[in-house]
Amino acid sequence: MRIIIHGVGAVGGVLAAALSRSGQQVVGIARGAQLEAIRADGLTVRTPQETFSARFDCVAHPSEITFEADDLILLTMKSQDTVAALEDLRAAGVRDQHIFCFQNGVANEPTALRRFPNVHGVTVMMPCSYLKPGQVSVRAQPRFGLFDIGRYPHGADDADRSLAAALDAAGFAGFPMEDVMQSKYGKLLMNLGNIIEASVGPGVDTAPLRQRVRSEAETVLQAAGISWVDVGAADPRRDAILKVAEVPGEARPGGSTVQSLRRGTGHVETDYLNGEIAYLGRRHDVEAPLNARLTQLGADLVRQGHSPGDLSVEDLTALLDGT
Ligand SMILES: NC(=O)C1=CN([C@@H]2O[C@H](COP(=O)(O)OP(=O)(O)OC[C@H]3O[C@@H](n4cnc5c(N)ncnc54)[C@H](OP(=O)(O)O)[C@@H]3O)[C@@H](O)[C@H]2O)C=CC1
Ligand SMILES: CC(C)(CO)C(=O)C(=O)O
């Protein structure tokens, strides 16, 4: 069983390096300076407890891989890059292999299921960062990450159990579950704050705004008949498995949307986070103005070339209130 990691950035990088260190056969798919650095020196992972490097095979494109029936394919790119990645996998001969969406949002699984029969959702609880080519960090201990894993739309099979076992052996915690999308909707509610954090900058107290945005989303999910489980601070597994902790010498990096804005990648994932709520609200005739405005804000911040923290909390509140 090989583990193919498509998109070796923050999440994909921590997974690739730790799985490879634990003895799994890993093949990464990366691009640009990241690919060059990994090929030259491997990938270095900084954690609260240690810094380690790992070497694994890394290619520029799925067409360089001869896929085997028992390969497990992990999608670890942002949601806006998923369609292109799936098309590349299909052109490279992928058919029945198990594909795991290690991504935020809930749109990747149905997108993959249109093309492939064996699709799995994974809830990713792993605060990590892409630092520079060849270097990532993860701010969690004692485990690097906690993952709920299951087939889409439901069920859990041997592929889920094999991957969970491999993750456990590599320093993560994997939990096969029958209804993984409930967990992913719970994570989606947490990620509605990503664009808020990116607007005002990491470390700024935005709890009241986040609560308003979340409760609007909960109303939308209820109207849509979608249930979720809380995977946030109230999740009892976190105490023993996943505490957020600082990496020595690393400034507070912020979540994945902050990182996209800071790196000027030219896109953010907001259409698939707050935009999911706007979409569901429109489909089910429920007003969701806060999430709709935040979705538009994500696009505006990118187009106007903003950096994290360019807005004050007052600016953002006025924008959300339409004043
Ligand atoms: N970072 C975090 O703390 C967490 C992130 N997540 C989720 O995990 C997912 C991944 O996020 P994250 O790791 O932060 O994102 P990153 O941007 O750090 O990593 C994604 C990587 O995928 C690469 N990529 C995209 N498309 C392709 C392609 N077709 N071929 C090769 N490489 C490709 C990107 O390259 P390039 O840079 O050139 O675009 C980038 O290196 C997202 O859904 C995010 O929301 C979930 C929990 C925590
Ligand atoms: C919850 C959080 C902010 C960190 O794990 C995340 O999912 C992200 O950065 O997208």
UniProtKB/TrEMBL annotation:
<dbReference type="InterPro" id="IPR013328">
    <property type="entry name" value="6PGD_dom2"/>
</dbReference>
<feature type="domain" description="Ketopantoate reductase N-terminal">
    <location>
        <begin position="3"/>
        <end position="142"/>
    </location>
</feature>
<dbReference type="InterPro" id="IPR003710">
    <property type="entry name" value="ApbA"/>
</dbReference>
<keyword id="KW-0560">Oxidoreductase</keyword>
<dbReference type="Pfam" id="PF02558">
    <property type="entry name" value="ApbA"/>
</dbReference>
<keyword id="KW-0566">Pantothenate biosynthesis</keyword>
<dbReference type="InterPro" id="IPR036291">
    <property type="entry name" value="NAD(P)-bd_dom_sf"/>
</dbReference>
<dbReference type="GO" id="GO:0050661">
    <property type="term" value="F:NADP binding"/>
</dbReference>
<dbReference type="Pfam" id="PF08546">
    <property type="entry name" value="ApbA_C"/>
</dbReference>
<dbReference type="InterPro" id="IPR050838">
    <property type="entry name" value="Ketopantoate_reductase"/>
</dbReference>
<dbReference type="InterPro" id="IPR008927">
    <property type="entry name" value="6-PGluconate_DH-like_C_sf"/>
</dbReference>
<dbReference type="GO" id="GO:0008677">
    <property type="term" value="F:2-dehydropantoate 2-reductase activity"/>
</dbReference>
<comment type="similarity">
    <text>Belongs to the ketopantoate reductase family.</text>
</comment>
<protein>
    <recommendedName>
        <fullName>2-dehydropantoate 2-reductase</fullName>
        <ecNumber>1.1.1.169</ecNumber>
    </recommendedName>
</protein>
<comment type="function">
    <text>Catalyzes the NADPH-dependent reduction of ketopantoate into pantoic acid.</text>
</comment>
<comment type="pathway">
    <text>Cofactor biosynthesis; (R)-pantothenate biosynthesis; (R)-pantoate from 3-methyl-2-oxobutanoate: step 2/2.</text>
</comment>
<dbReference type="GO" id="GO:0005737">
    <property type="term" value="C:cytoplasm"/>
</dbReference>
<feature type="domain" description="Ketopantoate reductase C-terminal">
    <location>
        <begin position="179"/>
        <end position="297"/>
    </location>
</feature>
<dbReference type="GO" id="GO:0015940">
    <property type="term" value="P:pantothenate biosynthetic process"/>
</dbReference>
<dbReference type="InterPro" id="IPR013752">
    <property type="entry name" value="KPA_reductase"/>
</dbReference>
<dbReference type="InterPro" id="IPR013332">
    <property type="entry name" value="KPR_N"/>
</dbReference>
<keyword id="KW-0521">NADP</keyword>
